[in-house]
């Protein structure tokens, strides 16, 4: 097993970014259930994210989604976040909720609509300039529903053109993160359906164009850790949208549906020396495009949101601790010797280790309650926001 001090140091340096939209009312096409105490403004979403940071200590930034988090003063919003102990992280563009985007946004056959979509993306870069954000995250709902509906190759050309225009506008320290998804809302072709397409488009766009792996965006049975290993090998893994699923893009709590898969994914990150951010001593050897953005992208449709985010962060910490406990020398020796069962056992020993006592120690060593979830429930914050947040329009998709 790895020596505990370095494992603890890596766990203390972990940074998990929260999605502002996880605190809003969300649901499915069947129903968005309203919950009491849900934030009504981006400021209240930041208040909720600050609660997660207060109890976990490893969630120092919150990602925004534009226009869901549209405000008149983004610099002021960043100041508000800083006063709450947070930074504004990834800026997510939204070119999937306007009637004009029925046939697509940047890949739409109509140049007027493409121009409108590119304009919305460029506006997000203005937001990044105001908030000091490093990453622009692009997920496109673009695709087709019927064979022949549009030219598959032509849509790729339009997509490439749009990415080039937006990339041109980025500052030298800003990055573009391209997220793929194999289907939904389009049901025949999706213009960025898989890692191969995302990587191809990023390689053609520029060095600071990197791929995001959303763990809910793969066909059943896809080996996601293989994709992660390949993107790290190519130096093009920009970030994760962590969540879990039993069926499709369920956006359930990360690690809830398949904790073993999350462990295997983080094992590839640890193996590549890509877990620890540079400003915490990370080598960055396999992330020439900059540190990986470890983000959550989830929807707490039926469960309370802040506790759900705290539990999710704890799930990532537990999978990370297990991945850090894998003995790389013992593993390499067994692999070299062709000792199939021995090699598998090295990994399973780490995975089957109960890391909760270790994480409790880590939290106590940094002055936190050993059990953030219980500590939050005992804090009274949930009752307070339910009492305070009456009236106004709760945030929702
Ligand atoms: C698309 C997605 C994308 C976000 C959205 C909220 O399914 O994963 O990352 O913009 O969810
Ligand atoms: Mn996502």
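Q: What amino acid sequence fits the structure above?
A:
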């Amino acid at each position: 097993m790895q020596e505990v001090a370095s494992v603890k140091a890596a766990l203390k340096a972990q940074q998990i970014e929260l999605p502002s939209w996880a605190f809003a009312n969300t649901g499915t096409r069947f129903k968005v259930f309203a919950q009491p105490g849900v934030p009504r403004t981006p400021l209240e979403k930041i208040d909720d994210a600050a609660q997660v940071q207060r109890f976990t200590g490893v969630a120092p930034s919150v990602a925004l989604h534009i226009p869901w988090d549209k405000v008149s003063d983004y610099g002021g919003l960043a100041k508000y976040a800083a006063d709450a102990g947070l930074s504004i992280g990834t800026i997510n563009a939204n070119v999937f909720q306007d009637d004009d985007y029925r046939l697509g946004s940047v890949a739409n056959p109509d140049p007027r609509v493409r121009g409108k979509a590119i304009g919305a993306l460029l506006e997000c870069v203005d937001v990044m300039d105001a908030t000091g954000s490093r990453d622009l995250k692009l997920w496109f709902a673009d695709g087709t529903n019927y064979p022949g509906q549009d030219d598959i190759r032509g849509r790729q050309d339009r997509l490439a053109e749009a990415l080039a225009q937006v990339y041109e506008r980025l500052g030298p320290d800003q990055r573009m993160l391209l997220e793929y998804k194999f289907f939904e809302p389009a049901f025949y072709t999706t213009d960025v359906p898989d890692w191969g397409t995302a990587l191809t488009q990023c390689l053609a766009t520029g060095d600071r164009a990197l791929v995001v792996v959303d763990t809910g965006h793969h066909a059943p049975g896809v080996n996601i850790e293989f994709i992660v290993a390949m993107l790290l090998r190519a130096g093009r893994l920009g970030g994760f949208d962590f969540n879990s699923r039993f069926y499709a893009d369920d956006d359930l709590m990360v690690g809830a549906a398949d904790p073993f898969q999350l462990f295997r994914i983080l094992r590839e990150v640890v193996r590549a020396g890509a877990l620890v951010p540079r400003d915490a001593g990370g080598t960055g050897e396999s992330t020439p495009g900059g540190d990986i953005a470890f983000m959550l992208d989830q929807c707490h449709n039926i469960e309370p949101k802040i506790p759900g985010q705290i539990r999710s962060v704890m799930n990532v910490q537990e999978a990370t601790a297990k991945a850090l406990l894998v003995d790389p020398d013992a593993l390499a020796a067994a692999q070299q010797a062709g000792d199939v069962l021995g090699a598998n056992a090295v990994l399973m020993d780490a995975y089957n280790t109960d890391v909760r006592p270790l994480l409790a120690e880590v939290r106590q060593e940094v002055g936190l309650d050993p059990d953030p979830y219980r500590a939050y429930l005992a804090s009274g914050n949930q009752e307070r926001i339910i009492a305070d947040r009456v009236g106004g329009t709760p945030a929702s998709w």
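Q: And what stands out in the fold?
A: The radius of gyration is 21 Å.
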